[in-house]
Specification:
The chain is an all-alpha fold and 811 residues long. α12 crosses α14 and α16 runs parallel beside α19. The longest helix is centred in the N-terminal third of the chain and has 38 residues. About 6% of the residues have low confidence.
């Protein structure tokens, strides 16, 4: 049996052991830190040069040595240029040839020796100097041996010779990378410089640059090095692009088919070159083939454009783009077919954009009728340049978009997207016909109505089923939002486009119909009938939109009928209230149907328009507000409309009362505030009865404030005694009622009003008394009051706390 030490002794032993452990831990941590520092220092020490040196150390990334070599090459190049340009004249012909030739040969031969020793960077620097010296040799040779040669011709020959020399010099040495890219750059100049030196025409120069582009394409396709391939591509893009721009400019400016043939041949040659490059380089096939397609369309279309009248130029290019689509059905690689399809699509899109201004002009032209409604048939406008071809272009693009996904499945064009675009373009073609043909008023109006009717009919047509469309139709219907026709879902893309087109045409026709009185009633009546039929046949959101359109048309009919009867504007407002009243009855019949709320909201806008029309005549405005309040109150009977319609009805009734009082010349604020206070207090009492825990501020505060505050301001500015007396009595009654019923809001509001009203009434007498007293008495009384309050501070504090607690217990 072991005898345990006393607790104090055991605690002392434990503390000693812990202190020893802490000391040992600190020693070990210090040793660990020293070891880590030693290992890191050994790793950072430089290695033995004899063991780490490598023969190819110069091929490492750029270092100080490479920087020095580059600077040295630059300085030598500057010295060579200075020698050639400045010191050349101090030597004879033999000395000149000897010095420059010796330096050039030395500079070109030295890299071979340097490469044998593995000094690649040094060899590149010296080779760059040698290439520059060959350029100086060519310049010197022209100055000495061929001074009479045309500078452009000599530069063309010299650049070709240098390109060939550099192209052979680089591979001959094996590993030098600079000479071959330099040869590619030099190869860009011989043919264009030769054409410029010969004084050839612009299209000959374009052929020279196109030939250079062909050379660049061959280099880019055959090169194995990335830098050479990139330079070839850049050269082909630059020279070929310049040839295409030149050919396009010449083609557009040609005034006859014979003049357009030459640029067409140039553009077709460029298209063939681009197509060949696309066929051999799949990585860039799409972009290159697209350029080829655009060039071919520009070339052939330019010839057709020159043979046709000016306004039919766009249809000529569009025809070529349609023919280009046939290439999609060939056996060409996928990238090539895709690029040609993109080129054709770009021409189609540009053609549609070209036709768009005519459509916009047709839709916006009826707005001129709004300046003088019912003033008669507007004057017929002459056809603008290009408007005749606009509907043809839009209809052609629509047909192509409709047929392309079905006839050319290789395009991978979504059928739904194509159908939506085709619908919009077909509608644009129909809308542009009146402007294109300069139709008179009646045919234009009829065509606009027919277009709106057809578009709405397409919007509300039943969705295609699987039995009618097969598997593809089922997949398309599933991919189209709202195609199932489920109530409450948004319309599909096709239906949405059709709806937008129908509404645009209907709006334009409605505005155009305002030119004459019979046309107004005929157009609005037909639009209302069409929208009602579409609402009955439609589904979901589409039904709600056309139903709102029917409400707008009905409001227009009512306003037109009232105006035709000779009623002034403020009486037309009374007639317009029939629209929200009918919508409220229809909404009560529809109940919670999704269409009910949009219809009632649209009708409410018609009610707002009625209020605006009645503003200049206050008595009628009061009547309009009261009737609108009746309609809102009737609507609030329905539970789903009560939260909004109830408050709206109260606001309208109050506004009607205020307008009526203002129109009668009543200036007493109580006449305006009491009609608000009494219902508000009644509503507050009902709320307190249903919810005894409700605060008196939320129940009675708004109603009391509505009357007490304006009356208090009026009483302070009133010189008579009646209003302050009545206000004081009313405030006293409110205060007593609040104290009796233990309600905080009436007690506080009534008490404050009573105090301020009493202060206002007693203020003159207080002023008289203060003036009669000695000047020293008021400060003395104030001092005594402060002393008394200070002496009984604790008691006053307890009284204030009891008052606060008492008010806090009230509601």
């Amino acid at each position: 049996m072991e005898n345990a030490p006393p607790p104090a002794e055991e605690l002392r032993l434990i503390d000693r052991e812990l202190a020893q452990l802490d000391a040992r831990r600190a020693l070990l941590l210090a040793r660990r830190g020293w070891l880590l520092q030693t290992i890191r220092a050994a790793a950072a020490a430089p290695a033995d040069p004899a063991r780490t040196a490598r023969p190819d150390a110069e091929t490492s990334p750029p270092s100080a040595q490479n920087v020095l070599l580059t600077l040295g090459g630059i300085l030598l190049a500057v010295a060579a240029i200075a020698f050639t340009l400045v010191s050349w004249g101090h030597l004879g012909i033999g000395g000149r040839a000897l010095v420059l030739g010796a330096v050039t040969v030395t500079a070109l031969a030295t890299p071979a020796l340097l490469l044998r020793r593995g000094l690649v960077s040094t060899a590149e620097s010296v080779a760059a100097l040698g290439l520059l010296l060959t350029v100086l040799d060519a310049y010197a040779l022209h100055r000495v041996a061929f001074p009479g040669t045309h500078p452009g011709t000599y530069a063309a020959v010299a650049s070709g010779v240098l390109a060939a020399l550099w192209a052979g010099y680089g591979p001959a040495l094996g590993t030098l990378r600079l000479p071959v890219p330099a040869a590619v750059v030099a190869a860009q100049f011989p043919l264009p410089l030769w054409a410029l030196a010969a004084g050839s025409s612009l299209w000959v120069t374009a052929w020279a640059t196109l030939a250079t582009a062909a050379l660049d394409v061959a280099i880019a396709l055959a090169a194995k090095r990335t830098d050479v391939r990139v330079l070839g591509i850049l050269g082909a893009v630059t020279t070929g692009g310049w040839s295409l721009l030149t050919g396009g400019r010449l083609s557009v400016s040609a005034h006859s088919p014979s003049l357009a043939v030459e640029p067409a041949l140039l553009l077709l040659a460029a298209a063939g070159l681009a197509l060949c490059a696309a066929w051999r380089a799949p990585a860039s096939a799409v972009a290159t083939a697209a350029v080829a397609g655009l060039a071919s369309v520009a070339g052939v279309g330019g010839v057709l454009r020159a043979a046709l009248p000016g306004e039919w130029a766009v249809p000529a290019y569009l025809l070529c783009a349609i023919v280009l689509l046939a290439a999609v059905r060939t056996g060409a690689p996928h990238g090539v077919r895709t690029g040609l399809a993109y080129a054709s699509g770009a021409v189609h899109a540009a053609s549609a954009i070209w036709a768009a201004p005519v459509v916009i002009l047709t839709l916006l032209r009826p707005a001129a009728v709004l300046e003088d409604v019912w003033s008669g048939v507007p004057a017929q406008d002459a056809a603008l340049w290009g408007t005749v071809a606009a509907p043809v272009v839009a209809a052609t693009v629509a047909v192509v978009l409709r047929a392309a996904p079905r006839l050319l499945p290789a395009l991978d064009l979504p059928r739904t997207t194509a159908d939506c675009a085709a619908l919009a373009l077909a509608w644009s073609a129909a809308v542009a016909v009146p402007t294109a043909l300069s139709l008179s008023y009646a045919p234009t109006l009829v065509l606009q109505l027919l277009t709106a009717t057809a578009a709405l009919a397409l919007a509300v047509r039943p969705p295609r089923t699987a039995e009618a469309t097969g598997t593809a139709g089922t997949a398309e219907a599933a991919a189209t939002p709202g195609a199932s026709g489920t109530p409450g879902t948004p319309p599909g893309a096709f239906a949405g486009i059709a709806l937008a087109c129908g509404l645009a045409s209907g709006t334009s026709a409605a505005v155009l119909g305002l030119a004459t009185r019979p046309a107004t009633f005929a157009v609005l009546g037909m639009l209302v009938a069409v929208n009602v039929a579409a609402a009955l046949l439609g589904r979901g959101l589409l039904r709600a939109v056309v139903a709102c359109g029917a409400v707008v048309g009905t409001a227009g009919l009512v306003a037109a009928a009232a105006a035709a009867a000779g009623l002034p504007a403020h009486q037309v407002a009374l007639a317009l209230l029939a629209v929200p009243a009918a919508a409220a009855l229809l909404g009560a019949r529809l109940g919670r149907h999704p269409v009910a709320l949009p219809v009632e909201a649209t009708a409410a806008v018609a009610g707002l328009l009625a209020i605006v029309l009645a503003v200049p005549h206050p008595p009628t405005l009061a009547l309009v507000l009261a009737l609108a309040g009746v309609i809102a109150a009737g609507t609030s009977v329905r539970a789903e409309r009560r939260p909004v319609a109830g408050y709206l009805a109260a606001v309208l009734f109050v506004a009607a009362t205020w307008v009526r009082l203002a129109a009668s010349g009543v200036e007493w604020p109580e006449a305006y505030t009491l009609p608000v206070t009494v219902p508000a207090l009644a509503v507050g009492a009902l709320r307190r009865r249903r919810d005894p825990q409700a605060s008196s501020w939320s129940a009675y505060g708004p109603g009391l404030t509505a009357t007490l505050v304006p009356s208090l301001f009026a009483a302070w500015g009133d010189t008579h005694w009646l209003r302050p007396l009545l206000l004081g009595v009313a405030a006293l009654a409110v205060t007593l009622a609040g104290a009796r019923l233990r309600l905080q809001a009436p007690l506080v509001l009534g008490g404050l009003t009573l105090a301020l009203d009493t202060l206002h009434e007693l203020a003159p007498y207080v002023v008289q008394v203060v003036d009669a007293l000695p000047r020293w008495l008021p400060p003395a009384l104030a001092g005594l009051l402060l002393l008394a309050v200070g002496a009984t501070y604790e008691q006053r504090l307890r009284d204030a706390r009891r008052l606060r607690d008492g008010l806090g217990r009230m509601r």
